[in-house]
Amino acid sequence: MNVSELLSAVVLRLRAKLPALHVDFFPESPAEFRLNHPVGAVLVSYGKSTFGRTQDVGVVIQPQTVRFNATAVLRQLNGKGGAVDVLDLLRQSLGGWRPPDCQRDIWLVEDVFLGQREGLWQYVLTFETVTVFVQDSESADLPLLTQVEYEDINEIHLQRPGERGDAALRGSAAGDPAVS
Questions:
Q1: 42, 86 contact by CB (below 8 A)
Q2: Under CATH, what is the fold of the domain 3-134?
């Protein structure tokens, strides 16, 4: 799944689960961010991806572990609606939830106190899930298959290692002892 789509799914989930807070994508310019909400905000960002081994099926297919961060910015530290309370709500809202097109439920990695500045308490919750990266491939311009004909195979041709076609054992599929 596309990381942008996953990020949007997480934001939508948190908006539904935490209606008392402003939930949005992490701002492009964090230094210019101003909290206008009376209680606080949760800002969701993409952290990184790690990739597993490719599957040998003709195209690149790899498990992709995707890491996200939810930064809680609150006007209060403790009590209902405070930063510690919101962290609990974030954990419960995300831990164990499986976003669309993911192979695993979200698991929690860590939460960390980022600091307090100008009366705003900040924590970040880091969480991960697994999706699958699939190579974007274009179809070859081949003729369209329109008819399939089946042929009954009554004869099996076996060849021992080192023998050429003329010396191959020949027998029928109906249990001829020469085929054993």
A1: yes
A2: STM4215-like (3.30.2000)
